[in-house]
Specification:
Length: about 180
């Protein structure tokens, strides 16, 4: 059984964000398996490096997507991302200093952060995206209704001859006085 299982309630976009999250879930499970087999120290440096590189790229992409969408809570999201990266870099420093607990700490930090961040913070993006889609659908429906009302009015209105800008309309001839 996996240490940390991907679940349906973690789906954000069915695309690049989820693919990145799934990779991080795979890495935490790979690390946990190695640790369980007594190989944590042997693989932690490689996995930590992969986690840091993958996470930096993921967070950069996620923030870019949020900026493009006009996500209103982007600044707070960035603060959370920075905090997580600080945790990873702190673990990297501990590892370089010879700490033997980094593998277990990294497993725990990744599992907890992924679970909470995806299910709370990234779900905000999903809710925002859904609100935007509903608003766009509402506007499109209103435009269709307005367009069909205008067309219906035009079908029932009497025909009015078009005026040419080059030639003013002819005025009725005046009767001679006499």
């Amino acid at each position: 059984m996996a240490y940390f299982a991907w679940a349906d309630d973690m789906v954000i976009d069915g695309g690049p964000i989820d693919a990145d999250h799934r990779l991080l879930v795979e890495l935490v499970n790979e690390l946990h398996t190695a640790t369980s087999e007594g190989q944590g120290r042997a693989v932690v440096e490689t996995i930590l490096h992969r986690v840091i590189v993958s996470t930096q790229e993921h967070l950069r992409n996620e923030e870019h997507i949020m900026a493009q969408m006009g996500f209103p809570d982007l600044d707070n999201h960035k603060i959370g991302h920075q905090h997580f990266m600080d945790q990873l870099w702190s673990l990297e420093k501990k590892l370089q200093a010879g700490s033997i607990t980094v593998a277990a700490q990294l497993s725990s930090v990744l599992r907890d952060w992924l679970s909470l961040h995806i299910r709370r913070n990234d779900k905000e993006l999903l809710r925002f995206q859904r609100r935007q889609a509903r608003e766009q659908a509402r506007k499109s429906a209103a435009a269709r209704v307005a367009g069909s009302s205008t067309a219906a009015i035009a079908r029932h209105a009497p025909a009015v001859p078009a005026l040419s800008a080059a030639q003013p309309p002819a005025l009725p001839a005046s009767k001679p006085r006499g």
